Automatic annotation (TrEMBL):
Domain Helicase C-terminal as annotated: residue spans: 423-620
GO cellular component: Ski complex
Lineage per the UniProt record: Eukaryota, Sar, Stramenopiles, Ochrophyta, Dictyochophyceae
Signal sequence residues: 1-22
Protein name (record): Helicase ATP-binding domain-containing protein
PANTHER family linked to this entry: ATP-DEPENDENT RNA AND DNA HELICASE (PTHR12131), ATP-DEPENDENT RNA HELICASE SUPV3L1, MITOCHONDRIAL-RELATED (PTHR12131:SF1)
GO aspect biological process, one term: nuclear-transcribed mRNA catabolic process, 3'-5' exonucleolytic nonsense-mediated decay
Keywords for this protein: ATP-binding, Coiled coil, Helicase, Hydrolase, Nucleotide-binding, Signal
SUPFAM superfamilies referenced in this protein's UniProt entry, alphabetically: P-loop containing nucleoside triphosphate hydrolases
Length: 1131
């Protein structure tokens, strides 16, 4: 019934919506509103606004925007009713009044969980449906930074966002803003972290911030409040959720990927890529990353595979950093300008020259390294030893009995000395990063033993009392249920303001350390680098003990990102004016090493996308083989390779096309001559010019040498001696023409300096000339040769008597007397006849003669080439050669570009092969799955394949084969847990002692699986698949003993040399797999029941969810720690 055909679809949808709206306005309006009102009101906000109050504004806008003749009568009627009802309800409140009233309401309940309900009510009352930034500013006690609001505005325009900011800049606030925004709209949001410990901490923080009933936790092995609007989980759990059940994210507004830079992790980076590729495009992604060098590439990839994405970058830190260097001389600024360095105030200097100077090494540190080799206050050759007077026992022993030829070790500051320096400079609290568990423990004990104060490092009597109260509360509430108590050594560390944090500790103990440190009761925490991965333990100072650490491939240097991640933990917003990052001198690193590392560019994120058996099974369950191939080609690595290839080929290809056009024009310009002919003639001319230059040089050199000789001989030469003059400047063109003459006399300007030489030239010249010694080419000193001496003296006297103004300078530069001045010409003619004549060849040396002949040969060759080319005298040889030279240069550039494009083509082919390598690995795993009947002929997973897709392991096929083997059905629940641990656990620490061994049933089951393991291994070798096929029972006895419930925690941990944290990790990993087995329908009921029984038996303190600690909500016990014990059934 529409009168305008072009708008029929829009109004048909709007008309249908108006019919349905009367019964269910939100549900009926949510679908078309995204298409109808993008410019009137934020579409997402309409999804949660109850009632007509928020809908009346856009509908009123539509009724005013379109003519009445176009509107559907039913729509007009409904619109009028809505607008009328909205006026009756008082919707005419201005937006400014609504906003001001909302801000006041939020501030009234700030700091309580009631703020969520108030925010939702304010959003529902929005006159336009929009949510201004001012509402969210009111939620925080500090002013939001511009980049945080920029991220929020991107979400408001339905765009994903990637925030790349330094550690400590407040990028987590951008993730919290996404949560607030979703809660305001009544929608769900997911928050993912790379670590379970970080997920636990976020869970605790969000419960306090948004309310316990609004926050849930999913970590794979546990779940709390799964239906909550805010769900915290590890990234692996989110990835598995996308593969298993997309319905779980259908109603989710956004997912926050915290620590997005974990994409660069070689072993786990693929999880982030899979999550982004598989996430539905309706789900907004908020990526929070530390500063990376290729953030634009990441955002481009986001847009390519997911949808519109906004990049938000900043180098701003609310608390600026200052970099220091610690040695046995104390702690000093690392840079010339103490405020220089990444995140420092000097980074904003307007002059590059000033910034460069500011980033120079502190001059006071230049000579420090050589001095410190001989020790000093606080020096130690090994920080781990107990120190006495600043010198370690090992260093003392080395000085007494060490090898004299041994290279002297660098003297490094001991940790007690570093602790005293930090205290003196008011740099506490501090986190000291040491890259080994044992190193953390030793350092803490060294510092504790060196403290003499009864109240510890910088602690007051009240602080010690508070620590004691908290520790007692911890023991009361945790000890009885978790069978865990703090050791006296650990309590002593706490009472001295010291703490240790590493993976070898129980999660509940690490949580206690985090809470004590956050409360300001611990002054120094010695921790491994895992603490830098997002755990919220802000400190005034961070100390980096060394710039290298041991990895899988031996000891290697830290990356720039790792150093900045640790340094960025320094500086507490609202408490510190600036943070401090101290780089300690070590045996391998000095101040130069620290400065150079900090000034290096941050590493770029690279792709680590790779398939697994589980991925293959899950993708083939949902997609065809062709669709799965397309998905695997959407990785970040493939995108970057295509981007680089397209950019390089585009610029080089365009330049090559332009050069080829110019090259063709020049070829026509030099025609009919070929480039070879012109080059040949040009080279011939160049050879002539080169030969003439050499000849001129030889002549000039010879003349200079002879002039010195003649200048020495002339004073002793007789009058009338025969000589030969060199050609004048006028005769220089006729090379070789000489003039014969006789010496009349020499005039001196002083006793030794010759002013001029007077000579008489032979016929036909017959003239008197004044020349210089350098004009003489030959002088004959023999008697009887030349003029008679008497005649020569008479002529010389006559010339000397002639005034100087009567001498005329000739064009050649020589002087002669004017003939009109009474010179006797007859005498000159008679005298000239007796001037001897010498052949010119006699004058030239052998080298000059050879070079003169070479010049003539080159001239003849050039003349022949000119005749061959038929070059006329009017040919512009200079322009022709210029064009030929330019043509030659362009041809060289064209050849280089062609070679570069050829290399790029080969590189692109290799990149395609590398990109296809992922697909080849996918197909290889598909072939292995097909070999074991997990994939059928139609590339669809069988029951075994579905089990592979549901399995949680490094080798899902191996775990699935074990779970379907007959021997598993005969195992009891503890024995099943024991066997699962043999497949899953890869604990590789050497010299580990375990007292408990697996039972006979587990040993028999493991032996029966050996042949299956070999078969799978052979198949993987055949298809070139690299996945672990593990069946190690070294620690299976520990798991079986704990699952049986026959041992206590103290009995279990005392039976092994493993750290309690490692035992906890092993058992919880086994629990995680057992819990995942309970929901796999393909498993027999008996196996699932045993898995459930084993998981429940293992889920007891201290492994249960006692690790989730929170503060008491009642004010009477504000400082007391209250563990939340979550029953496994409810979880």
């Amino acid at each position: 019934k529409m009168r305008r055909r072009g708008k029929s679809r829009l109004f048909a949808s709007l008309s249908l919506t108006s019919f349905l709206w009367a019964s269910d306005p939100v549900q009926s309006f949510s679908a078309p509103c995204n298409r109808l009102f993008p410019s009137i009101v934020h579409p997402v906000s309409l999804l949660s606004l109850k009632g007509p109050r928020a809908l009346c504004a856009p509908i009123r806008s539509l009724s005013e925007a379109f003519q009445e003749s176009i509107l559907d009568p039913v729509l007009k009627e409904v619109t009028a009713d809505v607008v009328g009802s909205s006026k009756e309800d008082g919707v005419e409140e201005t937006e400014e009044a609504w906003l001001q009233r909302g801000i006041e309401r939020l501030k009234a309940v700030a700091g309580t969980t009631q703020v969520v309900e108030v925010l939702q009510e304010i959003a529902q009352e929005s006159p336009t449906g929009a949510l201004p930034d001012e509402l969210f500013r009111a939620l925080f006690s500090f002013d939001l930074d511009s980049f945080q609001l920029e991220a929020l505005q991107a979400l408001g325009t339905r765009r994903s966002v990637v925030v790349s900011a330094p550690t400590g800049s407040g990028k987590t606030v951008a993730g919290e803003l996404a949560i607030w925004y979703a809660l305001a709209l009544g929608l769900k949001v997911m928050y993912t972290t790379p670590l379970k410990a970080l997920s636990n901490q976020k869970f605790r923080d969000f419960r306090r911030q948004y309310g316990a009933h609004r926050v849930g936790l999913l970590t794979g092995d546990s779940g709390v409040n799964r239906e909550a609007p805010v769900l915290v989980m590890t990234t692996e759990v989110f990835r598995n959720m996308l593969y298993d059940d997309l319905n779980m994210v259908q109603d989710v507004f956004a997912v926050v990927l915290d620590e997005l830079h974990y994409m660069n992790d070689p072993s786990r980076g693929t999880v982030w890529e899979e999550s982004i590729i598989s996430a539905p495009k309706s789900l907004l992604i908020v990526g929070l990353s530390a500063t990376v060098s290729n953030a634009k590439d990441i955002v481009g990839w986001f847009e390519h595979v997911h949808g519109p994405t906004k990049l938000v970058t900043t180098d701003f830190r609310p608390v600026p950093l200052r970099y220091l260097y610690g040695s046995n001389k104390g702690i000093s600024p690392l840079f010339r300008d103490p405020d220089a360095g990444p995140g420092g105030r000097a980074q904003k200097l307007d002059s590059k020259k000033k910034l460069k100077r500011a980033l120079e090494l502190n001059p006071a540190l230049l000579d420090e390294d050589s001095e410190q080799q001989f020790g000093g206050q606080g020096s130690s050759s090994w920080r781990g030893d107990v120190t006495v007077g600043g010198n370690s026992k090992l260093a003392y022993a080395a000085r007494r009995g060490g090898n004299e030829n041994r290279r002297p070790q660098q003297k490094v500051p001991s940790y007690p000395y570093v602790a005293r320096c930090l205290a003196r400079k008011d740099l506490l609290p501090a986190i000291v990063f040491i890259f080994s568990r044992l190193g953390c423990e030793r350092a803490a004990n060294d510092v504790a033993n060196s403290l003499r104060s009864d109240y510890g490092l910088g602690l007051s009597r009240a602080d010690t009392a508070r620590i004691t109260e908290r520790l007692d509360a911890f023991d009361r509430r945790v000890g009885d249920q978790a069978e865990f108590t703090l050791s006296e050594e650990r309590r002593l560390l706490f009472l001295k303001g010291l703490g240790v944090h590493h993976a070898g500790m129980l999660p509940l103990e690490k949580t206690l350390v985090e809470d004590l440190f956050s409360a300001g009761l611990l002054k120094i925490c010695f921790a491994t680098e895992t603490l830098a991965a997002g755990i919220n333990m802000p400190a005034r100072t961070t100390v980096i003990s060394t710039l290298s650490k041991r990895g899988d491939n031996g000891i290697g240097p830290l990356s720039v990102a790792q150093v900045l991640q640790m340094a960025g933990r320094a500086g507490r917003r609202g408490m510190d004016q600036e943070g401090a990052a101290v780089i300690l001198k070590s045996r391998s690193d000095d101040a130069h090493s620290g400065r150079d590392l900090l000034l290096k560019p941050i590493e770029a994120i690279v792709s680590h996308f790779r398939p697994s058996y589980g991925m293959v099974a899950k993708l083939l369950r949902q997609y065809t083989l062709a669709e799965a191939e397309e998905l695997t080609k959407r990785s970040f690595g493939t995108y970057v390779q295509e981007l680089e290839s397209a950019s390089a080929e585009g610029s080089d290809g365009s330049r090559l096309a332009k050069l080829e056009i110019k090259m063709e024009d020049l070829r026509q310009s030099v025609a009919p001559y070929t480039l070879t002919e012109i080059k040949d003639y040009t080279k011939a001319s160049e050879r002539v010019e080169a030969a003439e230059r050499i000849l001129g040089y030889l002549i000039a050199q010879t003349a200079a040498n002879e002039a010195k000789t003649f200048e020495a001989l002339l004073p002793f030469a007789r009058h009338g001696a025969a000589l030969i003059l060199r050609p004048s400047s006028q005769a220089s063109a006729a090379l070789g023409v000489t003039v014969h003459a006789a010496l009349l006399g020499v005039r001196f300007s002083s006793d030794v300096d010759i002013s001029a030489v007077t000579v008489l030239t032979a016929p036909p010249h017959c003239e008197v000339l004044e020349v210089q010694p350098e004009d003489i080419a030959h002088l004959d000193l023999e008697e009887g040769v030349g003029l008679p001496p008497a005649d020569a003296r008479e002529m010389f006297a006559t010339m000397e008597a002639l005034p100087r103004d009567k001498w005329v300078q000739q064009p050649s530069g020589r002087f002669r007397p004017a003939l009109s001045e009474g010179v006797n010409l007859e005498v000159l003619r008679v005298g000239s006849k007796v001037v001897p004549s010498v052949e010119p060849e006699y004058l030239e040396s052998g080298e000059i003669a050879k070079q003169r002949a070479k010049v003539k040969r080159q001239e003849r060759r050039r003349a022949r080439k000119r005749e061959v080319l038929a070059l006329s005298e009017h040919t512009d040889l200079e322009a022709l050669m210029k064009d030929a030279e330019e043509l030659d240069k362009i041809e060289v550039s064209v050849r280089r570009l062609q070679k570069r494009l050829a290399k790029q083509k080969k590189r692109r082919e290799k990149q395609v092969e590398a990109g296809s390598q992922v697909w080849e690995d996918f197909l290889a795993m598909r072939d292995v799955l097909e070999r074991f009947s997990a994939i059928d002929g139609d590339n669809k997973p069988t029951d075994l394949g579905l089990l592979v897709g549901s399995a949680n392991s490094d080798n899902e096929l191996w775990l699935a084969l074990i779970l379907t083997s007959p021997c598993v059905r005969r195992l009891s629940a503890p024995e099943l847990a024991s066997l699962i641990s043999a497949v899953m656990i890869q604990y590789t620490r050497p010299d580990t002692f375990v007292a408990f061994g697996p039972s006979a049933a587990v040993t028999i089951a493991a032996e029966s699986l050996r042949e299956l393991a070999e078969t799978l291994y052979d198949a993987q070798v055949e298809f070139d698949v690299d996945c672990p096929v593990q069946l190690a029972g070294s620690y299976a006895g520990l798991v079986e003993s704990w699952a049986s419930g026959l041992v206590t925690w103290n009995q279990l941990t005392s039976s092994t040399s493993m750290n309690q944290g490692d035992v906890c990790t092993m058992l919880r990993r086994t629990m995680e797999v057992l819990r995942s087995m309970t929901s796999i329908a393909a498993l027999p009921n008996s196996v699932r029941d045993n898995a459930r029984t084993a998981a429940d038996a293992m889920n007891r303190a201290p492994l249960s969810d006692v690790t989730y600690l929170d503060r008491r909500q009642d004010s009477s016990a504000e400082d007391e720690l209250a563990p939340i014990i979550i029953d496994s059934a409810s979880a």
